[in-house]
Structures are given as C-alpha cells and as structure tokens.
# Entry
Amino acid sequence: MVYAPQGSKRDLVKAKRQLATVIDLNKCMGCQTCVVACKNLWTVRDGTDHMRWMNVTTYPGHGYPRDYEHKGGGFRDGEPQPGVLTTMSDCGDHFQFNHDEVLNQGKGNAARFEPKTASGETPSWGYNWDEDRGGGEWPNGYRFYLPRMCYHCSNPPCLQACPTNAIYKREEDGIVLIDQERCRGHRHCVEACPYKAIYFNPVHETSEKCILCFPRVEKKIAPACNRQCPGRTRAFGYLDDVESQVHKLVRVWRVALPLHPEYGTEPNVYYIPPWSPLAYDDEGKLTDQMRIPVSQLEELFGPAVRQSLELLGRERAKKRKGEPSELMDILISRVWEDRFGGFTEAPLEPHAAKGGHKS
# Structure
C-alpha cells in the first residue's frame, strides 16, 4: 500500500491479508533468545535502551511493562477506554553499573555491583525481577512463561488514537507500523494500547514498537523472534493460508487463542494455553486436578480456554495410545520449516554479500 496519511482511519486500518503468530506456551522455556534476537536487531539505538519489543515474563507476575494489565486502553463494547502512560521504571529503565569502582579501583571485596537508574537513583523494579516466582503454595506451585510483543491488531486502538495519522496497517500483510516522520510524540497510542506494547523514545521524542521484522518478511524470512526460538514454540504465516500451521491452529483446530480478547482489539498473536502439571493432595499423592487454576487462564484467554484445554487433553491421550493426531504432530513440529508458512529463507549475511569470507 502507498501510505496516504491524509486518508481516513478506515483507510489506514484496511488490510487484504493478515500475518499472525502462534506461540505454544507448553514449550516456551523462558530462555530469552527471542528477546535477545529482537534487541540486537532493533533496539540498540539511542533512546531504546529500556525497550524490549519482544519480552518473556513469568506468569503470574507483574508482566512487562510492569502491571500493563492494569493500565487501561483498548475497547469495551466498541468504545475506546482511557489508559495511562507507562514510565521508564515500568519498562525496566536503563540501568547503569559502577564497573570502574568494582574492577579498577582496587577495592577488593569492599565494592560490589550496584545498579542505578538512568537518572542515578536506586531502582525499585527491573525487567524480570519476579522471574520464576509464579504462584500457588507448596507443593503445588506453578508458573509458565508468557512471551509478548506488539499484537498487530485488526482493530488497533493505537491507530485510532493517533492524532497525526502516523500509525497504519500495511494493506498487503496487516503489519501495524508507526511513521517516524509523522509521529509527534503525543503518546496517545501508548495510552490506548491495552498491551502497552508501544514505547516512547526520549531522545527522538517519538513512539516506537515492534515492526514484525518487515524487511525480513519482504524477503520471505520469518521475524527474528520466531526464527531464533530454539524450542520451536512459534508458528508464523498468513491466517488465510490454508496450508500454514497458523491457519490450522487458529481457524481449523481453534486451539490457539488471543490474549485478553475482552480488550476488543482483535490481536494477531495467539497462544496455545499451558497444560498444567497435576496437583498433590494433603497426603502427597497426585490428583487429577490442574495446579494452574483454570479461572486464571480464563482471565488471560477468555472462556474458550476450557474447550482448548479439553481438546489438547483428548489429542494428547490419542498420541499416547499410538493413534494419529494431526494437532499433536503440528505442535511437536519435527520439521522446522513447516512452522513458518513459506517464510523459510535464510537470514541475510551482509558480510558474505559484500564478498567477504563466509565461515
């Protein structure tokens, strides 16, 4: 699409096709490889130190940005809801450490690393400071990892809130982008996003967010966070591609669910809900009860999570009996190329392209 900023909001939200991601929470091991892959590509510039366009946190926990679920935004009954801005502290800040004091001043054991915020204060919270804490009581503690990014919504509240029409969906693939030349840093988009997946760059005074690695996508390379996942937790592709795993998991099996569907944004990142370990009773014996309360999963994924879990249970049982299960074969994913809906080209190697030695 040729971007037409003078167009109406209805024009800016149009998309002929929609790219989507499915993340299997049963396989995510919280390794942060996706976070590092994204960080190394997109947020090593001035003003982006506090940004993690891709992030993985422990649930239950504060999430990232901190307590995003309680900061408003999104829609209710079609009406925009008020939201609040995230702070540098909410986003984990940009910690500075006393490296010179510890390493170069000969203080031995008297000095130790002490983080300071970008403004020189002692931090009260940081990214993943509550990692692996989880919930429940011994011996029935529970937790799972929740990867999050921009959801490239079909009904993006950030787009509706932007007063300068700087935000738009690409017509060819539904990726939501912010035109950095038109953005004036009003941050209404940050308030409007219920996932708080938009960040303010204090150096350039503009809003920034995940771009779904569109330069890679245009060359049929899967986004870095998806491609680099060592656990094969991710499926990526067009929702209308009937051969893609995304289509099968979302539209056919209907086992992949959106996060907080009540926000009304129609997000295009979906999750296979976590299958809980079984709980112990007071005598230390295993029961048939899940440790993760289904009510908490309903708060995340809506009432459809019960049907999804029941389907997962039936298909797992079939596989254990040696019976065929297309769903389990998709989720096990023995062939990595099958995960990416045709976006399987190798990442670019600029050093090789320039004629350098390829090791």
